[in-house]
Write a structure and sequence with these properties.
Elements (H helix, E strand, L loop, with lengths): L8 H15 L1 H9 L10 H13 L6 H41 L2
């Protein structure tokens, strides 16, 4: 089975290091100290090149992962519906008993 591009441990470490550097307080301090200059508008061609480059970084789930996740969601929906059915039935029973008690006098 072929590996996904960018899934090697060294590539992941490089991405993590870049993210950490960008999010560090030191990076924020230097960005805040720099004078605010208006951003240069990119051309539509450059924009679509960047979009294409970002789209290449997307990793899609496999068919097996999608199937397992779907089954888990279905099971949780059934469990939640049974729980709410029981709670609704219990509350309905309690309200009916209170109403019978109030009208019995």
């Amino acid at each position: 089975m072929a590996r996904k591009p960018g899934s090697s441990p060294s590539a992941m470490k490089n991405r993590a290091a870049k993210t950490a550097a960008a999010m560090s307080p030191a990076g924020a301090a230097t960005a805040a100290a720099a004078p605010a200059t208006p951003k240069k508008r990119t051309s539509p061609v450059q924009f679509f090149r960047e979009v294409r480059a970002e789209a290449r970084k997307i990793t899609w789930t496999t068919r097996k992962e999608t199937w397992i996740t779907s089954v888990m969601v279905f099971i949780m929906v059934v469990m939640a519906s049974l729980f709410f059915l029981a709670v609704d039935g219990g509350l309905g029973f309690a309200v009916n008993q209170l109403l019978k008690l109030a009208t019995a006098r």
